Sequence to fold (876 residues):
Amino acid sequence: MKNFAQLIKTLDSSNKTNVKVDALTTYFKNASPEDKVWTIAILSHRRPPRPVNTTLLRIWANELANIPLWLFEESYHIVGDLAETIALIIPTTKEHSDKSLTEYLQEIIALKKKSDIEKKKYLHENWLALNYYERFVFTKLITGSLRIGVSQKLMTRALSKAEDVDEDALAYKLMGNWDPNTITFQELILDEKSSDYLSKPYPFYLAYPIEGEVDNLGNPEDWSVEHKWDGIRSQTIIRESEIYVWSRGEELVTDKYPEFQSFVGLIPNGTVIDAEILAFPEGEIGTFNDLQTRIGRKTISASLLEKVPVILKAYDILEWEGQDIRNLPYSERRLLLEQLYDSIKDKIKSFQLSERVLLHSWEDVTAERMRAREMKSEGLMIKRNDSTYQVGRKKGDWWKWKIEPLVIDAVLTYAMRGHGRRSNLFTDYTFALWQTNEKEEKELVTFAKAYSGLTDAEFRKVDDFIKKNTLERFGPVRSVTPKLVFEIGFEGIALSKRHKSGVATRFPRILRWRQDKKIEDANSIEDLKSMIS
Amino acid sequence: MKIPLLAFNDKGIYCQQADVYLDPWKPVKNAIITHGHADHSRWGNQNYITHHTNIPIIRHRLGEINVTGKEWGETFVINNVKFSLHPAGHIIGSSQIRVEHKGEVWVFTGDYKTEDDGISVPYEVVKCDTFITECTFGLPAFNWTPQAEVITEINNWWAENKADGKTSILFGYSLGKAQRLLKYLDTDIGTIYTHGAIENMTNVLRPMVDFPPTTLVTRETKKEDLLGNIVLAPPSAHGSIWIRKMTPFVTGSASGWMAFRGARRRRAIDKGFVLSDHCDWFSLLDSIKATGAEKIICTHGYTDIFSKYLRELGYDARTEKTQYEGEAAEMEKEVETEKEIQQ
Fold:
């Protein structure tokens, strides 16, 4: 545990990629095989299920700190992280535990089935037997969210260096479902073919936003253009008469989309498709908001299936006749995909093709991008015809060219303290627009929350304003004198009954602080609604 | 209704009986000053009274002012009100102000810490009826590690950076923190370089404290000269061109705020050292208890939360709005040092 906590501390305290890779590489070279498997699991977000709910964690931590619960809560709002708050308020003692990371995780797994009395005893003993930073990491393992700015890519690179295994091959091995509690390091990393090959997805290839002018890409004949659909990027695997659907977040979501079960038997075994899952109500592409009604549900009712059916919009094919074809040129993979589509399109309505748009000049491409809202896409994908299907986010062959966001000027009305890097600063904001009520008075109505888009210096200025202009406090939230106007950008917009304003926006974010505008100059809900196409 | 001995108005903490302000934030006739930080000693008062060791500091910052120096514990009477200054342990020359009239005693802490830092005269408990206290770090999340351990951590960090062939840049406020760090840096590791604001302030304090030698970073200083050595700089220098010229370097910051992971990451500092010139949670509670006061007034910091907790403990506690730094402490001090750079 000591070495793992030291690793996390180093990763957490550096902004420099090479420092992080070096720290990880050194750690992997020295750690036991069991600890290595667990470290990989934790850094790729495969954590044991949470053994204790956060309410009990707070109460039990509070008992050791011997303070009233409200004081704990206030401290938590200010610190901005539960595990960090717990680690800070519990006193450090002279006792010290030397258990390994694996021992701790096995105990945490076993803890889930224990009684509350045993759980509390276990936590009290271990909190007191760890130093501050170890206590923080231990609590993080229990609460289950260790976000320390280490991407899976970065971890894979370090592991590849430490074990001398090819990075892309390693990325593939780490995909899919594997249980750190049962798999050995040998099986996971070193063996040629892992046991759960059947459901294993390939790493996704991700595009960078286009830089500069699109004509810098050279001859348009070398490129293919598709729309960039606004749903869930997914990988659908059909092997040995089973279907597996993975989301980009490496979550197995097969059960959420029963529509796709009919693919088995029609799409041949040994096929893997890269596609977007889209809502398709009333025979048309729906909004992301429509899709959201499907994402959150544990069970999908028949009425919901009828109301918001989904389709797969296929981009690419990665495996064909059981062969990994990621190294074929994009144009050849697309021909295979299009042939497959033609052979089954009359039989499965929920399998569609993301059409390539035939364009001959960059002017055409630019014009096509302008049609994105009408097509219900987020913009365009521009892919080099001879590109292989690569691993992770790489520059050069695939580019995304999103449309400019919709913009509106809104008034800051509520603020909440941020988390992580932004803890102790008010950085999570709620914005309002004008509306005329029944009494013909103008009032501000909340329409969106946003917490990114300002520089650190701007956040500090706004934070200072909030602290000096607080009207009321509601736990961590403060209402603020309406005075500041911000330009808010968002990707999409739809009518919504769940929102007070009657409108839901997609990806709202702050574009800039309009210090030149007064609140009277901000837009109205009517202005917002007029943007719904 | 009886007029309180000390009242809070738009200019500062006012003693009407004596017509004197304590640490006023707007210009007044008579001001008693706790210490030299910008939010406590402002420009424009007609007469200043402060501890004599604070005089060189405020003269350096405010120029030629009309100031009278006092000894620790020396009583001076203004219109029947007895005043005296007592060590606050915050920085060199920092005092608490004791005010007594008709048997009633009030104490205003200014800023204070109870740990002996070895360079400022240590905090002294002053018995009183009403205790006006800061609570910059008035949350149970703040528990300081003893100074000696933090200093060891800092010197080890410097030695490691030196082994890596890098320059160490350590941020601390130019008045107070910088000298506390300077005093304990291990000159066996290398040379201590300083930013102008820190060099100037340290020179003001050299007659009072024995500090290791420092070298000012000038235009002529080559970055090869700095390699393996340490540079003391004010927080506002972080990210400046002045610093960027020193590559390869590693940055560290010494502040109570470094207790929070977010605070360090937000400032993009490589290493945070939790070292504060203010009280932590338990030293606030202990010092309040030791004064024997029943009435507590919290002036800056997490005042609402802290005074609510004090009321639960049975104190008659409240908060008063002042213009002392509070939550924005670090920022305002950064602004302060920026002013110093311009001077």
In short: Residues 150 and 241 of chain B are 29 Å apart (CA to CA). Residues 7-142+278-342 of chain B form a domain with the Metallo-beta-lactamase; Chain A fold (CATH 3.60.15.10).
